[in-house]
Amino acid sequence: MALRRARSDRRSRRLQRRPATQQFTIGGQSPVRLGDPGDTPVPGQYDGDGRADLAVYHDGWFEIRGVGRYAVGAPGDVPMPLF
Q: Distance between CA atoms of 60 and 62, rounded to whole angstroms?
């Protein structure tokens, strides 16, 4: 299932996710597992390097690959990625 196009290094690469396994693939690279089934993907620019980062949200928690896990908001909130 294609989610969005992530801009990185002035190239567009397709981001795909398999909800059952919570594996993400960007532009044909090796799959990466992040979060748990049922988490909401919220890729965005979180670490200041100018490239999209993989992230998921679940019940008030953002988990950002390579950055960390943060309590933000409350269960039932709608996540908004940072760009």
A: 7
